[in-house]
Fold this sequence. Notes:
6-stranded mixed β-barrel; about 30% strand
Amino acid sequence: MGAALQRVTTAYIENEDRLRLTGKLADGDTVVLWLTQRLLSRLVPHLTAWLARQAGSFASTVSPAMQSAHHDIVQGFAQQSARAQLKPGSPVRAASTAAGWRVDAVDVAQGEVGVVLTFKGEAGEQVVMTMTMQPLRQWLSIVYEQVVAAEWPTTAWPAWMEVAASSPQNQPRTAVLH
């Protein structure tokens, strides 16, 4: 198991056409992770499906269309709530750019306290980020904002994410996750 990320700043870097995660490790060191559009589009469905499973199921006595509409409404409200509770913070700054690497794979697992993401690099690097539902929703909001800013396709994202992001009370936020 890799080092544990404690805080992460997420930003789209146009020159790289990638998302940069600048993370602070438990020991105080920093690391820079680069996520490609392709990897992110594969990761998002796993994370949003995990969130949907945590919310439970709607009564089976209603039609599938009604279940789907209810699901989108519930997920949208939960996403809006998590985003509204996101507190601005100071960004994580990398101690060195030499500590950066491209993420080639992400293992997604159910942990005791939430979802566990293990980011893996080509040369065997790896770091772990564990998030409960609320921080995961907050981080996904930040990532979604960055994806939209990058003008990347949002086809991998569920409809409820777009609805939550376009809510009037959602003003741009500092992209820091604690």
